[in-house]
Write a structure and sequence with these properties.
Blueprint (H helix, E strand, L loop, with lengths): L11 E4 L6 E9 L6 H13 L6 E7 L6 H11 L3 E6 L5 H11 L2 E6 L11 H9 L4 E9 L4 H17 L8 E8 H9 L7 H8 L3 E8 L11 H14 L2
Parallel strand pairs: 2-3, 2-5, 3-4, 6-8
Antiparallel strand pairs: 1-4, 5-7, 6-7
């Protein structure tokens, strides 16, 4: 029988969990993604079942969704023992959701991926292969971005160039949060005291062996992004100036 679900740092209403370590955890922040969850799950499951691992978990973090996302996630937990979830009492934002997933996950390696299917789950096999070669961080680096306007592509490019000018931390260009990190990186992140989380910057700052895997980013499957250029700049600049 599953034990009672405990609160997580005062933010989560409910969390379902396992107690034994896993080979791989996949962290998926969710905010109004009802149109994407089913397809994402099917593609993730197909990839994870084909990896040379004995155990894995998918950890969905429901970040205050107002649609049917939570109900869909709960349904997955009924039919698949590898799925668990965290349910926030309200929307706290993408970086907080991912951080909660990192706090709760138990994988020896951890993949962070969004639910919109712009980042292909099938790339996880390549990320994991590089990890087995000895890399503690394997980040997915965009070679192209399908279905995005010139303005979106331009602002995304400018974001990393601006950030590079105001901080000495070498954050790889054309990357997002889609990556694989080793348990040693997760444990260090959990000890970092920053209130303003900017995980791709923190991971770059930590160091260790890091490598890129290039890919072509797909068009969003459905829904609208809540992660705007303005929000991205605010997070990045707050984090960068916190270093000084």
């Amino acid at each position: 029988m599953t034990p009672p679900n405990p609160p997580l740092k005062g933010r989560a209403k409910k969390i379902s969990y396992f107690s034994a370590a896993m080979d791989l955890s996949v962290i998926i922040p969710i905010y109004n993604e009802e149109a994407n969850i089913g397809l994402l799950y099917n593609r993730l499951k197909g990839v994870l079942d084909g990896l040379p691992i004995e155990s894995y978990e998918m950890v969905f973090i429901n970040d205050g969704s107002r649609d049917a996302s939570l109900a869909l996630i709960k349904g997955l937990t009924v039919t698949d023992k590898n799925v668990r979830y965290i349910d926030f009492s309200r929307n706290f934002g993408h970086q907080v959701a991912v951080t909660a997933g990192l706090d709760a996950c138990i994988g020896n390696a951890v993949v962070i991926i969004d639910a919109d299917l712009q980042d292909p789950p099938e790339l996880i096999g390549d990320l994991y292969a590089k990890h087995k070669e000895g890399y503690q961080v394997v980040y997915a680096q965009r070679r192209s971005r399908s279905g995005e306007s010139f303005f979106k592509k331009f602002t995304a490019k400018m974001f990393y160039r601006i950030l590079a000018r105001i901080t000495s931390v070498n954050i790889p260009v054309d990357t997002g949060d889609f990556r694989l990190i080793d348990r040693v990186i997760v444990n260090i992140l959990k000890e970092m005291p920053e209130q303003q989380k900017y995980l791709r910057g923190q991971i770059a700052w930590i160091g260790f062996n890091q490598i890129a895997v290039e890919y072509d980013r797909d068009e969003r499957n459905a829904g609208e992004t809540g992660y705007t250029f303005k929000k991205m700049m605010r997070l990045g600049i707050r984090w960068a100036y916190g270093l000084f």
